[in-house]
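Human
Can I borrow your eye for a moment on a structure tokenisation matter? Give me a protein, with the fold worked out from its sequence. Write it directly below this note and I will take it from there.

Assistant
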Amino acid sequence: MLISASPNFLIEEIASRLDIDYCIASIHNDKNGHLINNVCRKEEKVKRFKDLNLDAEVENVFSDNIKADKPIFELGQHCFLVTKGVLKEIKL
């Protein structure tokens, strides 16, 4: 699963190339570029994940922003901060 605050047209292409089954991103209007709903960030990421009703455990969460992604980090068994190409496991 790939969850991002980035626009869906970017994230869906990446998910497709990586053969990822589920993709959640900020939805935009193709004609004018405006966002159609809430930006997929902070608590919105958790809400959209739970809305899928997958009955799935979140094993690993990767992010470049601890503050913005704290709600989704709280679901993960292992959390990783990625900054400047460096991956570091963190504990909340």
